[in-house]
Amino acid sequence: MNMASVKTDLYQGHDYYMMDDLLTEEHKLIRDAARAWIKQEVSPIIEEAAETQVFPKHLLPGLGAIGAFGPYIPEQYGGAGLDQISYGIIMQELERCDSGLRSTASVQSSLVMYPIWKYGTEEQKQKFLPKLASGEMMGCFGLTEPDHGSNPGGMVTHFKDEGDHYLLNGAKIWISNAPFADVAVVWAKDETGRIHGLLVERGMEGFSTPKMTGKWSLRASDTGELVFEDVKVPKENLLTGRSGLGAPLSCLDSARYGIAWGAIGAALDCYDTRLALCQAKGAVRATHCRVPAPTEETGRNDHRDHQGTAAHPSFGPIAQ
User: Fold this and answer.
1) pLDDT (tens digit per residue) in 152-182
2) Rounded Cα gap, residues 251 and 248, in angstroms
3) Which whole-number Å values give the CA distances from 55 to 84, 87, 175, in the listed order?
4) pLDDT single digits (tens) 199-226
5) How many Å apart are CA 142 and CA 11, to the nearest integer?
6) CATH of 3-137+250-269, one of 1.20.140.20, 3.40.50.300, 3.30.470.20, 1.10.540.10
7) pLDDT at 293 (0 to 100)
8) How far lies 91's CA from each of 30, 34, 83, 259, in Å?
9) DSSP letter at 170?
10) Helical spans, DSSP H, in 72-180
11) Residue pair 228/200 in contact by the 8 Å Cβ criterion
12) DSSP letter at 87?
């Protein structure tokens, strides 16, 4: 590592709307643990990872340890058994540091573990979920295709029933975690055109995951393709709990929840960074950036400078 590129994370939480009052002590402990780990392990190296477009795989066990992978998954399947607010708080802390890192965790949680938990068999849950929760195993979600993009109903990836297995053919593109994923939740049409989920494991003959390079964003996360050429998928790898387009779309609903929390994390870091820069430029200029104390008349922060113009954006933090 280039030591000159190592950064110290000086982030300080802000709670102008007193949102902490809505959190439990457990929520705050989860946030503090995630923030401490990120400051120590991620912030010092993430800029170099983004510059070189290299995913820091050594962080995976740590992400598992702070509960970033499927925190709402029941403990019997290796998860932490936490609530959805806890999931959101962790995603917020991750994206405060790096959007790509949050994307990696969101995919693992909402797009891989969620469908296995909701629609998988008991055997699938026992086989995959504990290792996915710890980071020992990583997954990806195959829905988007080269020729159909945001129109998943137009997918051409398909499989045929060959008696003792399914024969899968097709391709997916822009798939987060694909280059290193151990299992892919792949959505494909059967012979009647009905969409089903299949668990395709690395090492299956005909299955490849070429990496995509040259991205301009989310550079610290790995993105790739999923290519299926006569892949023999065991019948026990079919997600039997739900079929149809609504199945993958429900996973995206779960993912969007974490993404929304993540966006708040990014906004909080932008504000904190700008505030620190303004304060560092001297007392006079810092006055225009520093948040004034609540007034007796309003009981809240005015968020304006002495000329009455907005001194900084108000992001409405959910949790710090």
Assistant:
1) 989 999 999 999 999 999 999 999 999 999 9
2) 5
3) 27, 22, 14
4) 999 999 999 999 999 999 999 999 999 9
5) 35
6) 1.10.540.10
7) 54
8) 11, 9, 13, 7
9) E
10) 84-97, 99-106, 114-119, 122-134
11) yes
12) H
**β-sheet bridge partners, residue 63:** none
CATH class of 140-248: mainly beta
Pairing of strands 139-142, 195-201: unpaired
What pLDDT score does 310 carry?
Answer: 36
Task: Collapse the DSSP code of 83 into the 3-class scheme (helix H, G, I; strand E, B; otherwise coil) and give the result.
Answer: coil
pLDDT tens across 65-99, in order? 999 999 999 999 999 999 999 999 999 999 999 99
Strand partners, 314: none
Considering Cα of 105, then 71, then 124, then 111, what sign does the dihedral take?
negative
Residue 309's pLDDT is: 36
Q: E strand or H helix at 140, and its extent? A: strand 139-142
Q: What is the biggest distance separating any 2 CA atoms in the chain, rounded to whole angstroms?
A: 77
Q: Report the SS3 class of residue 291.
A: coil
Which tokens hold the place of 235? Answer: 């019948």
Question: pLDDT value at position 286?
Answer: 46
Burial call 25-59: b when 16+ CB within 10 Å, e when fewer: eebeebbeebbebbbebbbbbbebbbeebebbeeb
| Domains of the chain, residue spans | 3-137+250-269, 140-248
Kindly list the distances between the CA atom of residue 77 and the CA atoms of 39, 61, 147, 165, in Å, as whole numbers in the listed order: 29, 17, 37, 27
Residue whose structure tokens are 């987060």? 176
DSSP secondary structure, 195-251, as one string: EEEEEEETT-TTEE-PBP---SSSTTS-EEEEEEEEEEEEGGGEE-S--STHHHHHH
Q: Closest Cα partner for 215 from 267, 175, 256?
A: 175
Contact of 132 with 69, CB cutoff 8 Å: yes
Contact status, residue 138 vs residue 118, Cβ threshold 8 Å: no
> 175 - beta bridge partners?
224
Whether residue 287 has pLDDT greater than 70: no
